[in-house]
What we know:
By secondary structure, the protein is an alpha+beta fold. The chain contains one helix and twelve strands.
Amino acid sequence: MTRKEFFARVGFGAATVLLPACIAGLATSCSSDDSGTSGSGSSIPAATGNFTVDTSTGPLATNGGFIVMKGIIIARTTTGTFLAVSSSCTHEGVTLGYEKSGNVFVCPRHNSQFTSTGTVISGPAPSNLKQYQTTLSGTTLTVIV
Length: 145
Ligand code: FES
């Protein structure tokens, strides 16, 4: 086998293995942003200034949906108001989720729960989340950092 043939086979083999993983969202290096809904929050870059989100598409277009952007979890309640708090659990930094039925933020690792304004309901999280104010203009939501 020539060197060229070897690399052709290895390259094809790697693509065969990695492509389905990327499609399934299992390879984190394939992700282009941090708008996912769960996972470790330790590598999410924090917001350094106000930013906007289009609420006409994606999870925020629906009551009960939420996204994580720039270290902040933004949720749309079942009544259509928007919430924004820091997305990292104050226990070990895991990215939080939002449970629309209870209007609470929940940590998937050890089940800490926070109110809609970020106050700890149950631990082991030792402290509250930071709450951010938002303003809505049309379908553009501004998160004030
Ligand atoms: S990491 Fe969130 S409760 Fe432990």
